[in-house]
Amino acid sequence: MDELVYPLTDAEKARLHTGLEAAFTIPIIDDVEDFVWEALFHYVKDIPLADSITQGRTKQLFDAVAPDGRGWSLKTLVSRNFNPGTNFEFVIQRANIFQKATLLGFPGGLSATSNVADLGKALIRHWNEKHRKDCINQNITDPRIVILLKNRTRKRLAYVEFAYPFLQEEEYQWQWSREGGFGLQGWKYEKIHLKWYPSGTQLFQVFQMPDNAYYFEIEWQRASLSSFVENVIRTLTD
């Protein structure tokens, strides 16, 4: 079963191109990532952007929220290859399920020698609690995740927007990556979708580039620092 992918509208594609070209032109921006990508995404979706200085930022799951209940977790990645079928992964949470075993439904405790199915259930419950809480706090009814992939020159890119629902325990099978344990792998539909490393408690989610991702190219040239600053000041004072 393929993950649900949402397409961009033609207007959103145009704003994505324009916004990226403008951002990469700015000499005081080293890349489009983190807050720069968040701000640009608000422009793409034409939704209000909170001022990060006067209103602050949060560590909640969804970096952009629309009034209609859509919420997006935003990621970026630099890669030489993001053709269809390519896998890429992100840390989504630190999940210390050994310390929280009782809260996760395992009063007898959990350890690296526990049944792998129980470890997998605990990981999914740990993540789902974060997901559920942030959906409620941020008024999200339509959770999504967006990934912007960039090549080294930042001129060939790809955009993909997946549905981002709760994880379902019964859909996953679990196994250690090697005998004796190292990384725990969560398999779904014969593909690895989750990885967890007990030494660092990091939970990774694995995505596969779909055939219907939006691939595109942009052209941009860095502005000189002096001309950029002077043009900004001139615009603000006009």
Largest sheet: 5 strands, mixed
Write down the overall mean pLDDT. 95
What is the tally of helical segments? 4
Percent helix:
25-40%
Which structural category fits the helices and strands? alpha+beta
General form: elongated
The number of domains: 1
Order of helices and strands: HHEEEHEEEEEEEH
Measured between the Cα atoms of the first and last residue, the distance is 55 Å
Strand order of the largest sheet: 1-2-4-5-10
Radius of gyration, whole Å:
20 Å
Please mark out the parts with pLDDT under 50 across 5 or more consecutive residues, or reply none: none
Strand % is 25-35%
The overall strand count is 10
Tell me what the structure shows.
The chain has 238 residues and is an alpha+beta fold. It has one domain (10-237). Helices cover 26% and strands 26% of the residues. It is built from four helices and ten strands; from the N terminus they run ααβββαβββββββα. The strands form two sheets. It has a five-stranded mixed beta sheet with strand order 1-2-4-5-10. Strand 4 and strand 5 (156-163) form a beta hairpin. The mean pLDDT is 95.
